[in-house]
Every structure is written in C-alpha cells, then in structure tokens.
C-alpha cells in the first residue's frame, strides 16, 4: 500500500505492519538523510474517509524513541516529501505508536504511517521544520538554474584591462554560454 524513498537508496515498498492500521519503514544510517518521500503504491487506496498520518521516529541519546508528526498522505494527495534533517534534535509529539514496543537501534530511524480518519488528520499539526519549500517547483527550478548559470559564466569573466582599454567593465566570452 505504501512506499518510502530516500535519495541514493532503493525504494522500500514493503513496510513492516505493526498493527492492523500501522506501518513502519526502517531508515538505516538516518544521520545522512535530508529528505524522505512517502507515497502510496496505487495498488490499494485508503478506505473512504481515511488517510495516513506520517511520523518520523529516531532514538534520542538515552535510546528512547522520539516520534514527530511530519504530515499525511491521502487518496487525493498520494505522495509527500518531508525534510527530516532538522528534526533530529527536537521534542517528540503525541503519536499512535506509543503502546508498541518497536525495536530501536542507535543508527536506525523509522517512518511510521498510521491509518486514521480524515477529520483526525485535519486537526493534527505537523512539526514545523518538516515541510518542504512552498515555492512551486518551476519557480524553484528557474531560480536555481539561473544561479547556476550566473556562477558558471562569471567564473570565466575577465576585465577590460585584461583585454583592451576601459577597465571598469567586465567581459564574459560568448562561447562560455555555449559550453554551459
């Protein structure tokens, strides 16, 4: 029903089912993870009026599990990207995994998905740092592309003093754009 993806790693498409309505993915070496994608596989939709709360769990220095709400997935929003890199030092929140004795090791975190009523999902408040940029992807791509272009092209800049008179102007050869 669910999948989990971390950049540079294989897709996890078989969560461990720890209760009838709760699923867990293990994230080894979680200290090196910045973002995680949680998605529905498309094989089994949520029952009508249901969705899934997504939680991040990591072991605190004493070895206790710290659970933080990241957000949710639903039939209408079947995937979400969450930033977890800044969450590894926060406080836990109320979560539905508390009564379960899930094994924790020092270098393994977990993503938990709890199937709940949509009304319950709407009332939950995710941890603030988990949301990924709210700028639309085209705008973000355009900004990053132009920054990249500027940095690349300006690395080839020479002053007029290095070429001909008028030392107050910088010159960027046109073939630099072709190389880019």
TrEMBL record:
It comes from the Eukaryota. GO terms for cellular component: cytosol; nucleus. The keyword Cytoplasm applies. It is found in: Cytoplasm; Cytoplasm, Cytosol; Nucleus. GO terms for molecular function: Hsp70 protein binding; nuclear import signal receptor activity. Forms an asymmetric homodimer; required for binding and nuclear import of HSP70 proteins. Interacts with ATP-bound HSP70 proteins. Acts as a specific nuclear import carrier for HSP70 proteins following heat-shock stress: acts by mediating the nucleoporin-dependent translocation of ATP-bound HSP70 proteins into the nucleus. HSP70 proteins import is required to protect cells from heat shock damages. Does not translocate ADP-bound HSP70 proteins into the nucleus. This is Protein Hikeshi. It comes from Hemiprocne comata. The gene is Hikeshi.
């Amino acid at each position: 029903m669910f999948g989990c993806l971390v950049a540079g790693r294989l897709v996890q498409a078989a969560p461990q089912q720890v209760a009838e309505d709760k699923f867990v993915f293990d994230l080894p070496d979680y200290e090196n993870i910045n973002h995680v994608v949680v998605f529905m596989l498309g094989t089994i939709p949520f029952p009508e009026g249901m969705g899934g709360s997504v939680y991040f769990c990591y072991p605190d220095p004493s070895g206790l599990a710290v659970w933080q709400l990241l957000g949710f997935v639903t039939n209408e929003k079947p995937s979400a990207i969450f930033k977890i890199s800044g969450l590894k030092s926060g406080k836990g929140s109320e979560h539905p995994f508390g009564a379960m004795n899930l094994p924790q090791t020092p270098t393994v975190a977990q993503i938990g998905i709890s199937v709940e009523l949509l009304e319950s999902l709407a009332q939950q408040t995710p941890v603030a740092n988990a949301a990924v940029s709210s700028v639309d992807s085209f705008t973000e791509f355009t900004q990053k592309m132009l920054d990249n272009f500027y940095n690349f092209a300006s690395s080839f800049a020479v002053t007029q003093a290095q070429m001909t008179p008028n030392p107050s102007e910088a010159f960027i050869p046109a073939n630099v754009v072709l190389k880019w």
